Amino acid sequence: MTQKSTEQDKHLYEEFARFFERPSRDRLRDLLKNNIGELPGCDFKRELPPYPKFSKHLLGFANSGGGVIILGVSQNEDNSLEPTGLEKLVDKAEITGNVRKFIPDILLPQIHILDFSYDATEYNAIKGKKFQVVMIPDDPKHIPFVSKSDGDGVRAQAIYVRRGTSTEESAYEELQAMLNRRLETRYSSSRELNLQTHIEQLKILYNQIDRYSTALGFFNLGEALTSAVFGKRVANPAYPKEDFESFIVKMIAQKKKRIEDELDLHRA
User: Fold this and answer.
1) pLDDT in tens, 51-79
2) Label partner for 165 (CA 20 to 30 A): which of 87, 197, 215, 263?
3) CATH label, 3-187, candidates 1.10.3470, 3.30.950, 3.40.50, 2.20.110
4) 31, 47, 30: which is closest to 132 by C-alpha?
């Protein structure tokens, strides 16, 4: 391989890396124009595959450091790529709903589908054409991702990886590599609780304490008589100063602040 071709390959890989980091119409156009070809982290499909097989590819990328599937590009007999475009853009909710059967719940929300249309462009090969880009994340804290169900081309409880430019069932060594990556994150799923579970448990705890004392529960005779005669409810001093609703409101405010901080960090 000549130095010129090596530098060209390096440029193409860098171009793909930039697109993966921040996808845009211009960067997709450049990828298609330069005919980067299939890479371990990038796959091209003429159209959306049947959902079981498509799910298999999603799992393979997720277990192999993440990647991109670009829909609307066909591969010729000489392995060159042709941006043929899609007849129509498939609704994202439809795609998500159909792969849900096979994709673990913790992975599915992280997969993003982007639509690109080129009504006007200086690159005539894609003019008037539509493409969809599926972004699969790298989430080493939760690998390996296991198929949930059987289907045409995918097997329940199987672990898939990208091997070169194809998706295959994981070999023992590949599974070991995934587990080592997960261990390196020092993340323990045993400590992970669903947010709803936390809230429900907190609600149960709050319900164990009466917010208002009954007359029989008072130590102050005057308060007890007042409550008994006039029906006045007196706050239970043992009840938390911050009630359940106030706590939830505070948590919402903190979560919103966290999101704003994350957005500011990405803008910097």
Assistant:
1) 999 999 999 999 999 999 999 999 877 77
2) 87
3) 3.30.950
4) 47
**Contact between 76 and 82 (Cβ < 8 Å):** yes
Secondary structure string (H, E, C) spanning 176-214: HHHHHHHHHCCCCHHHCCCHHHHHHHHHHHHHCCCCEEC
Are 34 and 15 within 8 A, CB to CB?
Answer: yes
Tell me the residue type at 186.
R
CA distances from 90 to 49, 95, 96 (A): 12, 7, 10
Handedness of CA 118, 119, 121, 123 (dihedral sign): positive
The number of CA neighbours under 13 Å toward the Cβ of 43 is: 23
Residue matched to tokens 């005057």: 222
Q: Which two tokens stand for residue 205?
A: 């705890």
Full-model pTM: 0.68
**Cβ neighbours of 83 (radius 10 Å):** 22
